[in-house]
Design brief:
Layout (H helix, E strand, L loop, with lengths): L8 E5 L8 E2 L4 E2 L8 H14 L10 E6 L16 H7 L9 H6 L5 H14 L1 H12 L3 E5 L10 H19 L10 H7 E4 L2 E4 L4 E4 L29 H14 L11 H11 L1 H30 L16 H15 L3 H33 L4 H25 L2 H4 L2 H14 L6 E4 L6 E6 L4 E6 L6 E2 L6 E2 L3 E5 L10 E6 L4 E3 L15
Length: 517
């Protein structure tokens, strides 16, 4: 008996973090922009549409799953121009009439403000939105799953605006094409969908979730209704988003790479290496702003804590029983309870690293002073030795505490997620996540079966461990409709130079990646 064929091929990506993009008024990208691969993304979609007639894809259309953090609304910091546009968005006509926080950090999270931010993202990334329009026009579907950086997808008008901006960008693109396929609002409404939490394919037994809910600093108290209890016109931003709004956005105007370094203490060391003198000023500002931000975050949490009610209970969805979804929601709540012991460990690990970096810089400056000003060779050499010791001690300590295995909380969470599925008797062959920006595919084997765990990483440049420096892996996963249902999900990277996918170049393998189809 032949097995049933899935209706669609699956194509999965995550964590694009589209922001303000290209700014015509400055003739360049926003310094807070993280996504620079609009053309490559269009080529990526064209390639996969062309491949669908191959036997392994069975002539079936594609479902493109954008698994969270597609957009980064909080990094849209510019304000509407004064006059009618500002009044339509904020109810005032002059920037001076806005509240201090909006003038300093950008618009808030109301539905109207979020729609305006989405429009700015679309204006800065016309090719990305046109690519989605083309992909739908040729018969494929697109699914957006909400992440921790785009909770604004909760607002109905934002979801509607995404369709409008896709259509606008595609029609502008089609004007320059000889035979562009037609695209209508009705097609977009039927072929673009949104999910607040997950996607489950019962035939393939594939579960897809962004994963940010399991990290305390990025956890939404009520993921299905992420609004403030006392001000439901505003979204509930978790601590991670508030730190981005209050701290990282301003520092990225000086060091655009800052939020692409994990953890931030590694960025502190890089700043001090680049320019020790001005770097000390920036680091001092970082500590000052972070201190203020933590107090502000604590104030906001105190304001809402007494008003919180029980989160909305999930209902059965996409073939998953309500009991399992309640278990997963409870697991996320449990993970969000960060113990004092864990906070103490983080403070000691990262605080120690910062202290060593500052000691190295301070000792180096004292050595220069001793050698050039007081002309004390002995004192100067003592400070040189102290700077050398602090620098190398910091590198050694960083290698220990900032190793990906130490920073990545996902492995334990993955085991807990799969345990919940087993306890409820729900089969899952593949678990596909994003959020951590660490691309990987791992088989988890037990006595009964193998479950494949994939993290689709990010299309954002990230700092890799030495000697790899900065790297960008345009990672993705796909599942073909014309292969056996128990075939593991493919884990690949898009090679923009060749216009084809390839196996990822693993850090421990020195061989050239293999191009595949």
């Amino acid at each position: 008996m032949s097995q049933p064929l899935p209706d669609e091929n699956l194509l999965l990506v995550s964590d694009f973090h589209l922001g303000e993009g290209w700014l015509p008024e400055v003739g360049g990208y926003s310094r807070r922009e993280d996504f620079f691969y609009d053309a490559e993304f269009f080529a990526f979609l064209r390639y996969h549409h062309a491949q669908k007639e191959a036997p392994r894809y069975a002539g079936k259309p594609w479902l493109l799953i954008l698994n969270g953090d597609t957009f980064d609304f909080v990094q849209v910091c510019k304000l509407p121009p004064e006059g009618p546009e500002l009044e339509a968005v904020c109810g005032v006509s002059r920037h001076a009439e806005l509240g201090r926080q909006k003038r300093r950090f950008g618009l808030g999270s109301t539905e109207t403000e979020s729609v305006w931010k989405l429009q700015q993202i679309a204006q800065g990334h016309p090719q990305f939105f046109a690519a989605l329009g083309w992909f739908v026009a040729v018969g494929n579907r697109v699914l957006f799953i909400r992440g921790n950086h785009d909770p604004e997808l909760h607002w109905p008008r934002v979801r509607a605006a995404i369709g409008e901006e896709i259509l606008r960008a595609y029609l502008a693109y089609a004007e320059g094409e000889v035979a562009a396929p037609a695209l209508t609002p009705e097609m977009l409404a039927g072929q673009i969908a949104f999910e607040p939490w997950f996607y489950y394919d019962g035939l393939r037994q594939v579960y897809v979730e962004h994963g940010g809910q399991y990290e305390p600093i990025n956890h939404f108290y009520d993921n299905l209704n992420p609004v403030l209890p006392h001000r439901p016109e505003l979204l509930e931003y978790p601590s991670g988003l508030l730190l981005t709004r209050y701290v990282y956005n301003r520092l990225e105007s000086i060091y655009p790479y800052l939020d692409n370094v994990r953890p931030v203490t590694r960025a502190v060391g890089r700043i001090l290496q680049e320019d020790p003198l001005s770097g000390l000023v920036v680091v001092a500002r970082l500590f000052r702003d972070t201190g203020w931000a933590l107090l502000e975050i604590q104030r906001k949490h105190r304001e809402t804590r007494s008003l919180l009610t029980a989160p909305a209970q999930p209902e059965a969805s996409q073939g998953l029983p309500a009991a399992l979804l309640e278990d997963l929601a409870a697991l996320a709540q449990e993970q969000a309870r960060f113990s004092w012991q864990e906070w103490e460990r983080l403070v000691l690990e990262q605080g120690g690293l910062v202290a060593l970096a500052l000691l190295a810089v301070y000792s180096g400056l004292k050595a220069l002073g001793a050698l050039l000003i007081t002309e004390s060779l002995r004192l100067g050499m003592e400070y040189v030795l102290l700077a050398w010791f602090a620098f190398h001690a910091g590198r050694t300590w960083s290698a220990l505490v900032n190793d990906e295995a130490n920073l990545n909380y996902m492995p334990k969470v993955i085991g807990d997620i799969l345990a919940r599925f087993r306890a409820r008797g729900v089969p899952v062959r593949s678990l596909i996540l994003g959020h951590t920006h660490i691309p990987e595919r791992t088989p988890l084997r037990d006595a009964e079966r193998t479950t494949w765990v994939v993290n689709t990483g990010t299309w954002v440049s990230a700092e890799a461990s030495e000697p790899f420096s900065w790297e960008t892996q345009l990672a993705f996963s796909r599942l073909a409709a014309g292969v056996p249902l128990d075939t593991p999900p493919e884990f690949l990277v898009w090679n923009a130079a060749t216009g084809e996918p390839q196996l990822p170049l693993l850090r421990w393998a020195g061989k050239r990646p293999q191009t595949i189809r």
